Amino acid sequence: MITSGGWRRPRPDPRLADVTLWRLMQHTGGWDRDASLDQLWADHTISAALDAPLPIGHADIMRYATARKLDFTPGFRYAYSNYGYLLLGRIIAKVSGMSYESYVRQRILAPAGITRMLLGRSASEQAFAAEVGYVSQYTRKSVLDDDGATVPYPYGGFNMANQDANGGWLGSAVDLVKWGFAFDKAGPVLNATSIGRVFAKPEIGVGSGGSWYGLGWNVRANNAGGLNTWHTGSMPGTFGFLARIQHGVSYCALFNRRQEGDAPSFGSIDPILGTATNGVSSWPTTDLTSRYF
Prior knowledge:
This protein is α+β, with helices and mostly antiparallel strands.
């Protein structure tokens, strides 16, 4: 046992040495939130374990996570891991010498022509002028301080600041579709080799449904001889879906709530949007994105 302040930390799992950037990006790093817990949504648990006051930060989460056994051997299987992407964000900051947000906005989004996206906040109901309000029927004990107050789940029931690299960005549907353009062909953000690596099959191969997880994208071969790539994501008060499908079509839908209770899943928007795109016989030949920025 290693003593650190008032907390006795077990020796790290030696398999952490086998956690690579590729495995973090492909969610094969060894953490399984269904087998143990999602470290990004366990503020009270981590605060109590470390005897650390709320709000906890990235360093607290990493200290807690690295003191526990991995859920599986890295590279052995896929398990979606928010914590793996938290680590990726910290690596970007460390290597670049910039904050994670500054690096992404300056070096990734700006070259793609995206200027409005930024990281979200937790405390206020409408942190930015263009930001919508978020809706949820659920409440939680605040993770932003130790007062024990009950708050609407989207407003203090989780710490948005800790979610940065795994889902903390604010943006419009147009912003996200334009981000998808960066993967259509070589450009200022990615070269052809990088794009090929993004969609390459992982070491664990293709899933039983014929799809696989690349680097931040779900991937499946389509009938046009190319690849369909997509991603969904949700938090209390929000749901998003972005897809790039055959014939160069991309679409995105964002909601200020997510499925709760017996309500239908917002993921059902996918086939509806797919059917709508198939019904378009003639697409504009000019770039209309500037009209919506």
